[in-house]
Amino acid sequence: MLRRARRILPGDPEFGDPLSTAGDDAPSAAARANDRLIRDRDSAYREVSLAGLQLWHAVNERVSRKPSNPEVTIVFTDLVGFSSWSLGAGDDATLRLLRKVAAAIEPPLLDRGGHIVKRMGDGLMAVFHRPEVALAGALDAMDALAGVEIDGYTPRMRAGLHTGRPQRIGGDWLGVDVNIAARVMERAAKGGLMVSAETLDRIEPEDLESLGVQARRVRKPFFGPKLSGVPEGLEMYRLVSADDDGPSIRV
Fold first, then answer.
1. Cα(10)–Cα(27) distance, integer angstroms
2. How far is residue 27's CA from residue 58's CA, in Å, rounded to a whole number?
3. How confident is the model at residue 166 (pLDDT cuts 50, 70, 90)?
4. pLDDT tens digits, one per residue of 81-115
5. Verdict on whether the full-model pTM lies above 0.85
6. DSSP alpha helix (H) spans, the chain
7. Where are the chain's structural domains?
8. SS (H, E, C) 193-231
9. How many whole angstroms separate alpha carbon 38 and alpha carbon 40?
10. 163, β-bridge pairs
11. Residues 6 or more apart whose Cβ sits within 8 Å of residue 124
12. Contact between 103 and 147 (Cβ < 8 Å)
């Protein structure tokens, strides 16, 4: 009965599970502590406590005026050929490289107002509230990486950007738009920066010009495998230096 009643209360009726309480806000921290103290998951007292925390969490979001799923630009990055290199380089060199990479690429993303959602070995996921700022941050990160070198090895980074409305659950972001951003990055197989049409369409031409880049549409390989987890007709663009020869393409 208490669980059913929580569905009519403001906020997330599932608040209290590990996904929803992974954030760094006060209600999430209180919910994690509550879960450790009350081991009986079928306890009525636990449901009453979570109902109060659910309301607190909902009010906290309304006061801060942060919607649960605002439009954001998602950035995924990783290093090209990192796994093959690390096998031969060994753990010590790999750890030194990852520390240098993080020290190089994370400050530019944070300085531009990005939020690093999670780190995944040689890559990361970040979100920005404006696509042109996300693009500038990714370009800054790539420039910063150019100065990283370990035992003669210089890593190459690839990045993918996509704009949408993923679901924010606790400290993570989930949903189709997150999957799309990851697939966009994967298309930059040899490194570089790829964006979806949804991101490019929200960036003004003068912003691209000021960043010194132009967009070239990526043709789908005729015999290539279909991308899984993305909608049909997804269009992607490779961003290259505006000094490169060839026509720029704008959505």
1. 14
2. 9
3. very high
4. 999 999 999 999 999 999 999 999 999 999 999 99
5. no
6. 2-6, 26-37, 44-64, 82-89, 91-111, 131-145, 176-186, 197-200, 205-211
7. 2-64, 72-241
8. EEEEHHHHCCCCHHHHHHHCEEEEECCCCCCCCCCCCCC
9. 6
10. 73
11. 76, 77, 105, 106, 116, 117, 118
12. no
Q: CATH fold of 72-241, please?
A: Alpha-Beta Plaits (3.30.70)
E strand or H helix at 158, and its extent?
strand 157-164
46 vs 102, more confident = 102
pLDDT at 211 over 70: yes
Q: Name residue 120's amino acid.
A: M
Scan for tokens 């996509």, then name that residue.
Answer: 162
Please list the residues that pair with 196 across neighbouring strands: 236
Measured between alpha carbons, how far is 204 from 226 in angstroms, rounded to an integer?
A: 30
pLDDT (0 to 100) of residue 250:
33
Q: Is 150:140 a contact under the CB 8 Å cutoff?
A: no
By C-alpha distance, which of 47, 100, 16, 73 is closest to 199?
73
By DSSP bridging, strand 167-169 and strand 213-217 are unpaired
Q: CA-CA distance, 20 to 62, in Å (whole number)?
A: 17
